[in-house]
């Protein structure tokens, strides 16, 4: 009996040994043909996650198609039969750092039918992956951050949806407070009264103080101490007033400009403005303190040749005590420049980017905007010269009373330009600073007007006689004509943004006007004494002084200080 039990035990031990030998001899990675340690290392490399690209924002789901999956080939071998029961240790979740085996039934189609993909961009052990940089005009700048230009940052956000900064115009029409609009400000919360058919009313208003200089007015010699020649008596006199340019000091004035945009994208707008300089004056007052005081003239004297007259340097006495002439001479000169315009402005193109500015070379956003302008312009230059002299001459004899002569003469000119105005305007913003350049060209008609008047009152009796000394019958009158003229203007301005709405500005302006008449050029010192009222000429006729339009040009330039408000 004991022998049978021993034989049974031997048979069971042999069967168990054979079964164990068969299980240990089954390959773990039949398809790969590689040792188990190599397969584990390859799977670990494929499952290793690279450094995430922070510029891509939120984490993206990984693609599992390129990862190696471990397959339970024992389960695969028996997949055609009824699946075997798994033990509790086989169904437990893998711990951290372990490889997770995948059933062949779930992965056979993807693992066996698709090749193993390895992405070249995925770094392996020891490799360093750099974050991407975005290239702008001012050099590479890391994404993110907020730098100037209404705090939009160096991220290129001001695109087609933010006002047409790509030069293609606005497409979305959306509104967001503080959008830089390539230097233009948009305020969605501003009060918009329905003044323009209820269109969007983003607009602007600027006021400037002008400190300008102008092309001085040229005057002939109007007051002196004697003849302006070597002819006696009163030879080689010195000029007291005239013979040079006057009104050359700075002129004070003001300029305003205002308007509104038709659309939210600030593509089309309409504006108007005006400027004016204070009436500037220059004067001379002479009398007994200037002895002698005369008015230098050139007279026409008959000569031996009836077809030719002789010109001679002469004087009209005002105050000369040696010959009992007592008198005063007052000369007043004035000039005033003003103008206005109305125009359409149209957005043309804009650019933006980042640069490094300031002493610390901080990354700063810049944006530029160019536009065309077309409108109408009117500019007027109004000038004049007034000469008043009062002379008292002692009587010729003991019983003769004194004679008095009161002369009043006026030379006035007006130039009225009206024409089409073409303009180009460019603005560039860097942080809180703004730089503007503007060129305008006015082309049109200038109306020239000259008014010459003169009168003399003798001994205070009326009526006054026609004519004075330089304004006589031969040139007194009102003269007008129209001429073609051009009026270019250049503006350069620098501004600093105090708030989102308010900007302080400082700039320079140059204005030029062709084909103008000025009063000093309309005075002719050559006179025919027969026309002078106190000459007692029987027929006061003659050719001198003559009148002829004498054209010249004009310029004005200066500094501008102002404030610009936009909404």
From TrEMBL:
Residues 1-30 form the signal peptide. Keywords: Signal. The keyword Repeat does not apply. Residues 74-105 are annotated as: Disordered. Residues 76-96 have a biased composition (Polar residues). This is Uncharacterized protein. It comes from Allorhodopirellula solitaria.
């Amino acid at each position: 009996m004991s022998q049978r039990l021993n034989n049974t035990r031997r048979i069971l031990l042999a069967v168990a040994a054979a079964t164990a030998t068969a299980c240990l001899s089954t390959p773990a990675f039949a398809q790969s043909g590689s040792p188990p340690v190599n397969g584990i290392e390859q799977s670990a490399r494929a499952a290793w996650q690279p450094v995430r690209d922070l510029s891509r924002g939120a984490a993206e789901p990984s693609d599992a198609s390129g990862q190696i999956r471990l397959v339970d080939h024992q389960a695969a071998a028996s997949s055609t039969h009824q699946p075997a029961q798994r033990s509790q240790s086989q169904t437990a979740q893998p711990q951290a750092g372990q490889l997770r085996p995948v059933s062949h039934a779930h992965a056979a189609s993807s693992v066996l039918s698709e090749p193993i993909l390895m992405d070249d961009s995925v770094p392996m052990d020891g490799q360093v992956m750099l974050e991407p940089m975005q290239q702008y005009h001012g050099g590479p700048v890391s994404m993110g951050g907020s730098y100037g230009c209404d705090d939009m940052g160096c991220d290129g956000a001001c695109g087609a949806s933010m006002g047409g900064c790509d030069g293609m115009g606005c497409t979305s029409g959306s509104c967001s407070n503080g959008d830089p609009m390539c230097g233009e400000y948009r305020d969605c919360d501003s009060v918009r009264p329905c003044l323009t058919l209820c269109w969007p009313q983003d607009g602007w208003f600027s006021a400037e103080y002008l400190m300008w200089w102008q092309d001085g007015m040229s005057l002939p010699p109007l007051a002196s101490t004697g003849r302006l020649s070597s002819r006696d008596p009163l030879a080689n006199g010195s000029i007291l007033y005239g013979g040079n340019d006057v009104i050359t000091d700075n002129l004070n004035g003001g300029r305003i400009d205002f308007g509104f945009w038709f659309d939210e994208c600030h593509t089309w707008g309409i504006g108007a403005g005006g400027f004016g300089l204070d009436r500037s004056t220059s004067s001379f007052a002479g009398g007994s303190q200037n002895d002698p005081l005369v008015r230098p003239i050139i007279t026409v004297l008959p000569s031996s040749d009836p077809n030719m007259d002789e010109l001679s340097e002469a004087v009209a006495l005002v105050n000369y005590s040696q010959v009992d002439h007592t008198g005063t001479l007052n000369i007043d000169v004035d000039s005033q420049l003003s103008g206005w315009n109305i125009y359409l402005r149209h957005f043309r193109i804009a650019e933006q980017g980042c640069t490094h500015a300031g002493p610390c070379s901080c990354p700063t956003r810049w944006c530029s905007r160019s536009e065309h302008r077309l409108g109408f312009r009117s500019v007027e230059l109004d000038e004049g010269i007034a000469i008043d002299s009062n002379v008292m001459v002692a009587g010729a004899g003991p019983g003769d009373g004194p004679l008095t002569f009161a002369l009043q003469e006026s030379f006035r000119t007006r130039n009225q330009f009206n024409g089409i105005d073409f303009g180009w305007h460019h603005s560039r913003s860097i942080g809180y600073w703004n730089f503007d350049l503007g060129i305008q060209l006015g082309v049109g008609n200038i109306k020239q007007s000259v008014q010459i008047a003169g009168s003399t009152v003798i001994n205070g009796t009326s009526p006054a006689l026609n004519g004075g000394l330089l304004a006589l019958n031969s040139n007194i009158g009102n003269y007008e004509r129209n001429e073609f003229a051009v009026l270019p203007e250049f503006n350069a301005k620098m501004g600093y943004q105090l708030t989102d709405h308010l900007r302080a500005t400082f700039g320079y302006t140059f204005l030029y006007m062709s084909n103008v008449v000025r009063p000093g050029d309309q005075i002719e010192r050559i006179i025919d004494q027969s026309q002078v009222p106190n000459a007692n000429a029987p027929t006061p006729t003659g050719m001198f002084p003559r009148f002829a339009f004498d054209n010249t040009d004009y310029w004005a330039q200066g500094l501008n200080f102002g404030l610009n408000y936009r909404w």
